[in-house]
Amino acid sequence: MGITERREREKEEIRRKILDAGRDLFAREGYDHVTMRAIADAIEYSPTTIYNHFEDKDDLVMALCYEDFGRLLGALSLQPRPEDPVEWIRQLGRGYAAFGASYPNHYRFMFMTPEKARIAKHDVSPGEQSFGLLRAAVAEAIEKGRFTAGDPDTMAQVLWAALHGVVSLHVTFRTDQWPRRPPAEDLVDRVIDNGIRGFLAAPKG
Description:
The protein contains nine helices and no strands. By secondary structure, the protein is mostly helical. The chain has two domains: about 1-55, Homeodomain-like (Arc Repressor Mutant, subunit A, Orthogonal Bundle), CATH 1.10.10; about 65-195, Orthogonal Bundle (Tetracycline Repressor, domain 2), CATH 1.10.357.10. Helix 5 (about 85-100) packs across helix 6 and helix 5 (about 85-100) runs antiparallel to helix 9 (about 185-195). The chain is elongated, with a radius of gyration of 20 Å. The relative contact order is 0.11.
């Protein structure tokens, strides 16, 4: 390996450390309470090193958003979509929940940090594309008569909101913190099915 290649690899390794430390701090302490110096201290580098990779804190947050939503989009797009749009919605819901379970710290950063952490000027197209998959499935379910007529944007938001609720609880609570008893193993599936049931059209005939 030549000097240039080694330097590029070292640069990428440092950038990865910055991103991972930033994500962890933002998720635990919130956007307003995290400084670039705190991130530098976490990885034992000088603040100057951080600024060699990112212009400022907002630039770092933008990079994290784009990366994490891209990871989510990849998880949702991994499996071939079913022909039945309702089954597609179930598949997307399970994929979303599996992402949260596999990457709880990423999920907290993406969806459970203050709104300021998602800078409006940032192009979060992977996030919009992720929601777009759910919206497309809902729109198709309406078109094929599987769902009642309605606004696909609102209906997709309702389904996502319910799913986000159960995933947020899973990544926040220990099993012994749930009321009365630990969550059922099929809790995510029940939440998905309950949301779908509310929009199903009555069978014809």
